[in-house]
Amino acid sequence: MIKKFLENLISKSTKLQDIPERVQKIIYEYIKDRAYFPKKYLTTFQVYRIDFNFYGGTKNLNDEQIAMLLSFLLISGVAVQQILLHMKDVFIEFRNYPNIEISAKYIGSIMHYLVRDTFSNNPTMIREILALLNYYRNYHLYNEQVEKQEDIFNTGMAFIDNDEFAEFLVPENNITEFWNLNTAFVDTFKNYVYAWSNRLAKLIKLKYQKSDVNLLPKRRYQRPQDKTATYIEVDDD
């Protein structure tokens, strides 16, 4: 079932014209520079792999980072969290199947852990306290480890990949046998997801970033002695 899901996902999103314009724009809002997210939307795993500017927006995202954001959005966020974990709510024809929920939970759990592992080493952790302060304080979230750091340039903090999504899933320790029995499939899944998400993210970013007014340099107005208003372009990053 996971293999069939991946095949359909890739085949239906290889060309931009196969994706509704509205969906493309939603994806772009999540993967663009200076992007903001719903509070607690990002897992710690993602936060530690993204740089954030002074206002809490994403900063200088590279290809691997936007691929990670896209994969977490479409696979972990939509397919797993919103569909597989709510099968009887989404598909009324399954309401009389007593085992459908636990089966979908196991499948969704495996899919999420596979997506997370795909990006465990690439992108690498940013390990910058200032970036984390920008994120947590702008989103009014408390991270005890970050707040205890007296030196913002200190990189000695223990960065632990907490995975808040896992709170709703089957514990990873309960399904390690899947990885042991399907090593070839696991590698194939990760390779395909990595290549697919990189390609799709690049296509969408290239299409929309040139017309994104939020990425234009900000204007700071100055009033000289002759009282004629002028402005200079500045970059808040």
Written account of the structure:
The protein is mainly α and 237 residues long. The protein has one domain (2-234). Helices cover 49% and strands 4% of the residues. It has 10 helices and 2 strands; from the N terminus they run H-H-H-H-H-H-H-H-H-H-E-E. A two-stranded antiparallel ribbon has the order 1-2. A hairpin with a 7-residue loop joins strand 1 (218-222) and strand 2. Helix 4 (63-83) crosses helix 10 and helix 6 packs across helix 10. It starts with a helix and ends with a strand. 24% of the residues are buried. The model has no long low-confidence stretch (mean pLDDT 89).
Distance between the termini: 44 Å
- Write down the oligomeric state: single chain
Query: What's the pLDDT, averaged over the residues?
Result: 89
Major sheet, described briefly? 2 strands, antiparallel
Structural class: mainly alpha
Proportion of helical residues: 40-55%
Number of domain modules: 1
Uncertain stretches:
none
Task: Describe the protein's topology.
Elements: H1 2-11, H2 21-31, H3 44-47, H4 63-83, H5 87-90, H6 100-118, H7 129-138, H8 144-147, H9 176-181, H10 183-208, E1 218-222, E2 230-234
Antiparallel strand pairs: 1-2
